[in-house]
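hey so u asked for the seq, here:
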Amino acid sequence: MRLRAETGSRANAMWGRTGRRANALWGRSGRSGLILTLTALALVVPLAAGASGRGPNVGTGTFVSPELLAQANQHPGEKIHVIVQSTGGVDDAAVKAANVGQLHRRLSLIGAVAVDMPAARLNALAKNPGLTITADAPVKLSGTVSSSNQMWPYESGVAKMWGTASAPAPQAPTIAVVDSGIQSNRPDFDSGARVVGQVTMTNLTPNSPGDGRGHGTFVAGIAAGSAAGYAGAAPNAGILSIDVMDDSGQARTSDVIAACDYILANKSKFNIRVANFSLHSSAKNHFYNDPLDNAVEKLWFNGIFVVAAAGNYGNATGPSGVLYAPGNDPFVMTVGAVDLGGKLAVGDDATAPWSAYGYTEDGFAKPELSAPGRYMVGPVPTTSTLAVQKADHIVSPGYIELSGTSFATPVVAGTAADLLARHPSWTPDQVKGALMVTAKPVPHAPALAAGVGQLNAGRASDYSKTPPNGNAPLTRYVSSSNGTMSFDAASWNDAVRASASWASASWADASWGDASWSSASWADASWNAASWADASWADASWADASWADMSVEDAAEGDASAPAPVMDASTSAELQADPDLALPPAQVLADPFVADSALATPAPAPVTATP
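ran it, structure tokens below
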């Protein structure tokens, strides 16, 4: 991820309009990065030390994000945007915040309010007990840059689940796409027939009707497109579009949380079983303190499979960590990006060099799974800012080639919808388990970079057993109060302090025995006690210049336009030779990208009459 300050007088997403040059989080630029680092460091160290290795605010006191507090003290005259969670619920949060600022949005899903307030009032707000106060930070898209008889649907196995006119696939449930909106009246979405709703949550401007950015249309096309030549993973799924982004790809965290609230409230109405988040927050938090993590967990605990992008701030030299919500949440399925190479077989597959991976601030290995995400081709509104900025990536009118974990994520989201169409009783934990246990290797991936491996949707669709619980180590810490499920962070922290190997036994269950990856090695690597207890809370890098600069769209910036991997005669033959990927004969004949290849049954050899 490349970070830079935006120039001009454009307002930012967290600090209010000041008429002066501003950055995304902390107001006017020009302040010393060293002062910022030292101030935040001074605040973080006592918190980490006082928590006995547990991280700040696991108990009952009020927690304020150290970066937020440091910057508020440095810029008391600025207007800030914060999310205030209360142990007493949304009404208590509203009452306690009423005297310090203006209520922007009630976030009932997580017992919180979003508040616009003078920075100078933050210390007064923090004197109230039972609060967790974090930045209403800018949320960024997790990918853009640069694939049409594409190989990815076939190598990932999703093509096997498409069905045919004579044998249609079972109806997939609705996928909620939380993004920049979609252009609904396209062949990709049956001219809008499969779009069950379009909801706008963002108040940022400019925000054009439909999809002024173009990112959401592309994501929805990969997840559930149905246009000839551009089919997505689940081409008969319903699509709920929730617009949380402006035309530049920026959002407020509170708007993304409000989208989660809307999804849960309308789950039954629209049959929503999957939610796609190809975006991430710009603020680092422990997952149990982060309001966006809290919100997506509410979806998960209520039967909605959440898929999140790992992010594109990785590099080829080693792990970057996965540091931002919601991809840092241990419950959700976090997805990295695979470069398929030019062959259908996995022998030349590798993780994309910019795909983020490694441990979260809380020691969880991420991503759990990878999917094709490099050189993907999908729909884009021709007038969108993305289409204009990436004009050299346009492959045909209304279609663009892009790369990023943003676009690996909807491959998995669509696959999850396909699996739920075939196994409607599966829980999110079981969908996650089925995807993990059937994954296939990524031969050229560094340790942890691809999670347990890459998506094998064909094998997952044929999985006939009860899937293992993909979150088995954490399930015991999920509790219910008054019918509301939540994660008990205090109990989890106590268990971790008592036994650094708390996760291993849960992965030893015999139900993981069919996995192509080693369940023993995953048990050893999936959680790292050192990462949980080390100096990450006191390290200056936790509050470095990335907090002070506006970040551009989280893009795979080094990728130039390149030929996308395609199906040809040899790769089509490989497809049919693989039982996990092979298409039914009727589908072979109906598929224009394989019907003309060597897949067709060869004509019988001519018979020569015996003289």
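The two ends are 75 Å apart (CA to CA). The CA atoms of residues 138 and 252 lie 5 Å apart.
lmk if thats what u needed
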